[in-house]
């Protein structure tokens, strides 16, 4: 019965390492397949390797308002800067906070760096402008300007249907999205008085029997006479046209602009009058839930001077017909909202309509940002040409190849046959690292920069160190007189503890470095932490199972001189422990 039991153990011992090796092989195939399916077969390169411009901005608060530099305001600033950079036609720019008061802007090659610096380094421009004319975002055919009566009927229909217009109606081509969504500006938390007559500029109710006040339309004033052709030709569906709309328009002059209230799915174009207020006139703004009506609204509080200006403009707008009773909230030349005004307002107001939670909060942040005492100082600008980035990438790859070659030479010279196991493990680790870097680019925005390459080179030594720890434990067991197969199993628990402690220390150092540093140094820390985790995976799921299988071969198990496990070369002294065990039971018999 003893012989069959001994025959089953090797089969069981061999089956487990084979399953483990198959498991890691499946993982590698899955990651490689993911790269090709997603179309990202190479890691995303950072600015210092691909070429481009990196701009570091530092937020500064006005004296006495240091608390304005906080996480909410910084995130809002990041969003505004992203809008500006995207307005330049940049598709792969990165804008992110760095620490508490810094913003890093990475702009890839092919972008005018001077124009980018101008865009990201200035404070956001927020203005309130009256709407003179609004239309769908495409090119408008040449036709007579809409009359006030037509605008009035369209506005009434929009209010009655709460934004659900008949596509065949004439209003569909002239009504802006803000009107279509039923958004209106009212005072405080009062509901808009949609059935009462609109007050005139004097504050008294208008006589319904009298004709409405004439609306301002393009071509009726000298200020807008030169913009009606530009307005008609403006195509807000085109990204470049949107970016150039109203470019460099001064606050005191009319302008054309584009706007969208559905995340850019549809666009409207506007002809706007001179700015009546700016962002500094807003004291506070926020998106919140109106508990009484169960809808999301945006509340605004104005400064003392802003309240007077707002009262003046709402007095004029409330006497107009749609769309001339709207005011546009314009941020950096783009209309972010264009609500109606139905009554005279002053110190506070609310914007209500078909807001979603995120839309209301975003608009509140934009309005409040215009009043923030924040400015940004340009700390540094680094421009790397594509040629220089390619040279740095080439230098990094050469350095990595030299480091890998030195490690392989050392392993072959010292461990001989065992070096084959170590080299295979290194290539498995390299394959996993490469595929994960390629997939993490589109997933989390990871970009391989020069410090990250350095982290990968350092990881070669960390991974090789784990193999050396295990090999030395196995050799120690052989020196004590054990054969290779039991030596491999007995050495593993001791080597495993050492490897885990060593990798934990490396990962902890990488995590601390990632948290306390900013910028490119985080790339080094991230790569170091990632490769440290992969080292544990490779040693546990590839090196150890492969070592178990190799111990069953004649070359390694028989202690070939070139295997690196020759008992004579390792200094194992006979008799082996097995001989001592056979003589131990005879001593009691002699006694």
Top keywords for this entry?
elongated, five-stranded mixed β-barrel, 15 strands, alpha+beta, single chain
Description:
The chain has 591 residues and is of the alpha+beta class. 50% of the residues lie in helices and 16% in strands. The chain contains 19 helices and 15 strands. The strands form three sheets. It has a five-stranded mixed barrel with strand order 4-7-6-12-11. 39% of the residues are buried. The N terminus is likely disordered.
How much helical structure, as a percent, in the residues? 40-55%
Query: Termini distance?
Result: 33 Å
Shape call: elongated
The SS-based structural class is alpha+beta
In what order do the strands lie side by side in the largest sheet? 4-7-6-12-11
DSSP helix count? 19
Low-confidence stretches: 1-15, 144-182, 189-220, 575-584
Largest sheet: 5 strands, mixed, barrel
Strand content: 15-25%
Per DSSP E runs of 2 or more residues, the count of β-strands stands at: 15
User: What's the Cα radius of gyration?
Assistant: 36 Å
Q: pLDDT average, as an integer? A: 75
What is the gist of this entry?
The protein is 50% helix and 16% strand. It has 591 residues and is of the alpha+beta class.
